[in-house]
């Protein structure tokens, strides 16, 4: 009998699709890091991300009969983690009040060379400093490839609001990158 820890990712997924519950733990261990990386982009802290990941895997195990084994597993997993993150935020997220045009600050343009020196943790830290809705829209649009119409439908906002939140997120990120580069990550802007 083949040892379970010697199975390939594809073999584990195939066995999970067939309902072999003893492979669920292997699947969790193999894809935990990937799922956590996705969740951390949407959640403020590691505890929230862990809860999202665990909820996502529970949903996956519950709905494995819906997975098409002829397709790639990672995009399906990513979609479920993103949806779990959105559902979690939707429970307590209150839409931010619109800023007036006068309150919008002058955009700060960061040095492209300095941006390349930023590490994953620096970028994640900056994303976590964004207001909740701006962070959510930025992640969905720029990283996960959702359209503004799709974002609007998922977050119960208008597509024009999605565009505004994305624009504000980018402005805030430029400002944060400018602050980081001024602190020694590159030449000051």
UniProtKB/TrEMBL annotation:
One annotated GO molecular function: DNA binding
Domain RNA polymerase sigma-70 region: 27-91
UniProt keyword terms in alphabetical order: Sigma factor, Transcription, Transcription regulation
UniProt xrefs under Gene3D superfamilies: 1.10.1740.10, Winged helix-like DNA-binding domain superfamily/Winged helix DNA-binding domain
Key word RNA-binding present: no
CDD domains (UniProt xref): Sigma70_r4 (cd06171)
InterPro entries linked: RNA_pol_sigma-70-like, RNA_pol_sigma-70_dom, RNA_pol_sigma70_r2, RNA_pol_sigma70_r4_t2, RNA_pol_sigma_r2, RNA_pol_sigma_r3/r4-like, WH-like_DNA-bd_sf
Source organism superkingdom: Bacteria
Name of a matching Pfam family: Sigma70_r4_2
Ranges of residues in domain RNA polymerase sigma factor 70 region 4 type: 122-173
Any one GO BP annotation for this protein: DNA-templated transcription initiation
Family: Belongs to the sigma-70 factor family. ECF subfamily.
Protein's name in the database: RNA polymerase sigma factor, sigma-70 family
Protein's organism: Solitalea canadensis (strain ATCC 29591 / DSM 3403 / JCM 21819 / LMG 8368 / NBRC 15130 / NCIMB 12057 / USAM 9D)
